[in-house]
Amino acid sequence: MKPSDRQSAQVLIREILISAGILLILWVCMPAEGRCGDIYDQDIKPLSTIECARCHYPVFLSLKNHGGKHRQKCGECHETYHNFRRGLKWEDRVPACTRCHDTPHGDSPEMKACLKCHENAHAPVYSIKLSTIEPLCGKCHAKPAEQLSKYPSAHSDLSCTDCHHDRHGVIPKCTECHEEPHSKFVDNAHCTRCHPVHMPTNLNYGPHIPNDACADCHNEQFTMLKNGILAHSEMKCVTCHSDEHGNVPSCEDCHGKPHTEEMLKDHKACSDCHGDVHDLKPVK
User: pLDDT tens digit string along 135-148?
Assistant: First the structure.
């Protein structure tokens, strides 16, 4: 090939490449509808949660940080969207709470007005204002309200938000008010096993109370039972001291009268022979 022909070929190739580059730039810059034909012939897929978040970022953050069980894909609740046309009813714009939740707080009008208390559906619990729900506490928490009324105590004189402060669902430590009145504080469960929180002075002991709970105040008796070798050492404190704090049964409640009156006349009490009830001694 002559030099002049080679030069002409190089010029032609360069022009072809430049033209191709220009066409590529025009293609990239061309609107999508121009590249894909009629845009209305395309199949539009539902928006993903991330795509929703690009326009509804505050909603996305509410769900992310405080959504609770509502922390789901947007399409789980919003089966249709962008339907805020003029004249459309509210119930046709957003999903009804009852579609998933039924009526968990009852059928009264005030209990069915979900957004009155759960002000932000995307942060349903976090958005509850204590000032709004305090008059309604007893509607959902009837048993605590009944206990506070039936068993008057210092707790009965408090409002619900005095203890359940800051936000709905908060449970304070007992030591916020009661600084270890008996023993070192472990957790609320150690307090409430004897003092039901909404009727703290009603100390009714059932079989669920372990002996070490009594040891906090009655360590001497607990130690004697623990180190004992006879039948009483195998029993729970609440077996004898049942039902109510301070209840002290007589030996006869369980044992009847195992000895004759003639034998008992020389003894003032069972402990004369059997020792302390928490530390029984073998009788010689």
Answer: 888 888 889 999 99
